[in-house]
Design a protein that fits this description.
35% strand, five-stranded antiparallel beta sheet, 20 strands, binds adenosine-5'-triphosphate, OB fold (Dihydrolipoamide Acetyltransferase, E2P), globular, binds magnesium ion, 9 helices, 2 domains, Rossmann fold, six-stranded mixed beta sheet, alpha+beta
Length: 356
Amino acid sequence: MSTSAGYLELVGVEKSFGDTAVLHGIDVSIAEGEFISLIGPSGSGKTTTLRIITGADQPTDGSVRLAGADITFVPPHKRGFSMVFQHFALFPHKNVYDNVAYGLQLRKVGKRELQQRVDAMLERVHMREYARRRVGELSGGQRQRVAIARALVIEPRLVLLDEPTGALDAKLRLRMQSQLKELHRELGLTFIHVTHNQSEALALADRVFVMNDGRVEQSGPPAEVFNAPATRFVAEFVGRNNLIDGTVDGGDFVSPLGSFRLNGRADCEGLHGPCTAVIRSDSLRLGEAPDGAQGASAQLQALEYGGSYVTWFLTAGGTQLQLDVRAEESGALRPAIGQRYAVWWKPDDAHYLRSA
Ligand SMILES: Nc1ncnc2c1ncn2[C@@H]1O[C@H](COP(=O)(O)OP(=O)(O)OP(=O)(O)O)[C@@H](O)[C@H]1O
Ligand SMILES: [Mg+2]
């Protein structure tokens, strides 16, 4: 599943705590300069994987390699990695400059070079004018920028970010995301990022790793993982999808919503027997199916207001459906719970999975 020559590689990494196995053979290969996002439900093993990469913990079996060298048992401080945590872990009584300079002082970098590197990094994160301000006197977003500056100034071999924007409000989070992306582009460092925020993974990552129960269930560019989930788990976890269970028989998908032609699509080749159609909630539309589209009739169960759009929850033949309708359109339709509505989708917007 790895796409490129490994800079950081986890090879057959297993981890047990006592009798409980929590990682079951992680094999990943990350290229130098890649931005990787790890996503997955609570307890799926994201933090454990990150701790094994940092050296805070060791695998029960398997190895960690960096640029070809086995680093499985190299202690954290000798790996040359940087971490950015959700709560920043800055020194509140030191000023901005001293926080950023700290890692370089530990590495005994000469005074002149240290000053140049700290100034340049503060400039990059637009914090130079706050250099003498104590961290305790900064806003959340400013602290976040100091935390990132401190992590990057040492030119780490790997940057590990655990929920780096988790403590920020929505607007600031977006600003930090674009700043992180820019720093990644400019500095060319390798980033591994854990997040609960899927839109953040989508915005930042070159590749997303979806973890489930101690395994990497799917990895790939965000658009691929979001548009073509490889398993039912990924389809349920990533994005907001409708899952329609049915059976493929002689080129037709037979489901409680009706029977639909697969039209010889390449991705459906060889499909036979129990299958699931996956349709994103923003690919399902209201109204009679136009020519060439596929459709069904469904009963409205509930509405959820989401600002610029309203999510309609419907059922069709026992299958739950959800679709997003622009707020004005939804209002104009005066939706009535219990009433039946026609829904449709473009055949290309349905993605088919073999049921396990
Ligand atoms: N020190 C430990 N001792 C025993 N079990 C542990 C320990 N650390 C983690 N676990 C277990 O390992 C599994 C994976 O935990 P991990 O913290 O890696 O999950 P996560 O994906 O980071 O979850 P979250 O999204 O909630 O942060 C969980 O079932 C957890 O209870
Ligand atoms: Mg965690």
